[in-house]
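ZP: hey, is the adenosine-5'-triphosphate complex queued? I don't see it on the tracker
AM: it wasn't, my bad. submitting now with these inputs:
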Amino acid sequence: MTAVPHLQIKNLRAKIEDKEILKGLNLEIKGGEVHAIMGPNGTGKSTLASTLMGHPKYEVTDGEVLINDEDLLEMAVDERARAGLFLAMQYPSEISGVTNSDFLRSAINARRGEGNEISLMKFIREMDKKMNTLEMDESFSHRYLNEGFSGGEKKRNEILQMMLLEPSICILDEIDSGLDIDALKIVAAGVNEMRSADRGFLIITHYQRLLNYVKPDFVHVMMQGRIVKSGGPELAERLEAEGYDWIKEELGIEDETVNANV
Ligand SMILES: Nc1ncnc2c1ncn2[C@@H]1O[C@H](COP(=O)(O)OP(=O)(O)OP(=O)(O)O)[C@@H](O)[C@H]1O
């Protein structure tokens, strides 16, 4: 029996160009759980996602992150992916000259390792199946990665990648932005299909509407580079209805921007 995946973030601090963005963030995600993070613009949500994935522009200055009890921060980006971490990016990159299917197959094989590559037939079958679920036209498999994709098509493609890679800890950074209502439901169905006891999710979003379709177990509010409040789905409903002022008042926060607390 494989152990339940587990991500532990302890007192994480990170900076970019001498500006501290993450200021002692704590969070724990286990397999089977869906966590949502909401928070005002510029409070460090994407920084958290990129820091966890190992983007070199962020420097970790303190704290610890463990994935299945192993030190995530010591791992190179590809090792993090192999350890089961996945990030669906807020702004996916375009790569001209590399077809979507070549990219996806390389990513799967890199994860599976030498000698354990997926056969071409199996890959095509899997990709077709997942593209069907996401209602993506077959042409997206041979178009260059994200090149000319609309905002919503890029987001669907990120979820396609997640479905094919089958990671154990999935970070979805504003996967709902740019999606029309039908696309939102399709993407949410893709995420829900992936929910299992073997997989945990961290969903970064500004809007309750995604959480109507992907029901979170925990909702966290991030301000000034750390989690300042946690609750259940009712917290997201209150944020949608009332915004963030009540939390700032409750916690005595005068300015929610990260600069205010440097
Ligand atoms: N290269 C950089 N130099 C200076 N500051 C930066 C740099 N990159 C990011 N930042 C700052 O880091 C802060 C956190 O940005 P981040 O994208 O993590 O916020 P966010 O909570 O995801 O915001 P949003 O909700 O708008 O997506 C912002 O104030 C941003 O301007």
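AM: back. The mean pLDDT is 93.
ZP: great, adding it to the tracker
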